[in-house]
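Ticket #4471: complex job returned nothing on first submit. Input attached below:
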Amino acid sequence: MSAIPVARPSNPIAAPAVAAWRTLLPSRRTRLGLRDKLLAWPVPLAVLLLWWVAARFEWIAPQVLPSPEAVALTLKESLVSGELWGHLQISLMRVIAGFGAGLVGGLLLGVAMGLSPTFKGYVYPLFKAFSQVPVLGWLPLLMLLVGIDEALKIILIGKAALVPIALNTYKGIQGVPTRFIEVARVLRFTRWQMLSRVVFPAALAPIWNGVRYGLTHAWLTLVVVELLASSEGLGFMIVYGRQLFQLDVVLAAVVVVGAVGFALDKLLALVEVRLLRWRKEAF
Amino acid sequence: MKALRGWVLPIALVLLWWAAVRFGWSSSPLLVPPEKVWQTAVEQITSGKLFAALGASLWRDLAGFAIGASSGLLFGALLGASRLAEKLLGPSFHTLKQISLFAWIPLLSVWFGLGDAAKVAFLSLAAFFPVVLNTFEGIRSVPADLLEVGRVLRFSPAQTWRKVILPAASPSIFAGIHLGLIYAWLATLGGEYLLVSGQGIANTMVDGREHFWMDLVLFGVIVVGLVGFALNWIASRIEARALAWRGRSVAQF
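Support reply: We reran it on our side without changes. The output follows.
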């Protein structure tokens, strides 16, 4: 056999596999890491340059596309004046309240459905039907029932977080391998020991996945609810800027929305490393 | 008997609702009798209003989804196939992905107006992100062994794509398309709320809310749920059919 898999750089398919293998070599890894970081910049910088040139020579009206400096300046001003912090604080409070409610409810519901087939039999079909209607489908109904105050936002954000958390918790508990349970039976674990030492640790990874999805959905929902019905918060800042045709305000708020979403995701990733560390230590 | 358990709670809720109306527990105009919702449903269906609204929503949904998913497939394949493309474009993509979807709407409305163009652009954006991510991950996780076999068999690049990469990545790609479909439906509703103009199922609900027609709003909620369910069902049928050659995996007993 002459064609034993030797990397031939001419073959386009071979390149990724070889590159993946090479990055494992420690001596090249750091050098490649630096190069990779540098490679991330040309595209955004080119876009920024194009944007700047387009704004500078007014290829596009400033009402439609403000210059990057204008956006940066607005961002800085609203940071310094504290206006942005106020909106950000309100938005964060709403997310925390709604996500907290969704988290508690979702975990309780998921655990109950996972542990008790009877409960699941009664509740699961209704839960499934309830989750088929997207968050935004409930919005007009809830607006009629609870008005457009804080309650609306917190209920909707809570619903957005509850569904993925409950579903993943339930599936996670269902998916605990039977052999773990059998070992625990052999060891004559009590019911409490069974839950705290076998079922929950084994289901923790999917549950945590659900929590991460839940937070992403909560943040997504917050923005849309604030866009639709709010007089403060980041979403309101976007609507307000849009109404006054101050796109620099809109873009500054969009940047903040993206940054907070990114920070929330990173925060949960950090917690995950701590929470699931025992998995690595076990081997 | 156990199969009937799922019906207990929904029936109890409807009974409670009916009793609340029947015995006048609340005088709120929002408490409409269940029959009223049924009448509204019949009226909406027979007068063709429902189909006009739903048709407009679904048309936009599918148009936006088609644009977003197909460009997402191409972009995801590019990121997956080329390390250079991943390094150049990947970080920008992952940064943009963090921006909450609906935050794009005000910008899109300035750039594309309030009509169908802005909605379709928004929907394609909603479908684009999950499709790109899953296509990229699917292609990246094609087992190296399979690629090596392809090389031993001296496959041309086209053959490698058609016979090795795409089949191996297809479960992940389908998962992305499925997600894209769900997000596109969510975005259809959001787009109609925020870019208020024209027809659509969400516009019907907004209309009902503004006039305090609870029956119309409840009917809208049911329709939205049914459409979501139908889209989900169709996507999983297509997925099951397209992936039938893989056989049953251990996970789907």
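Confidence is low (pLDDT under 50) at residues 1-25 of chain A. Closing as resolved unless it happens again.
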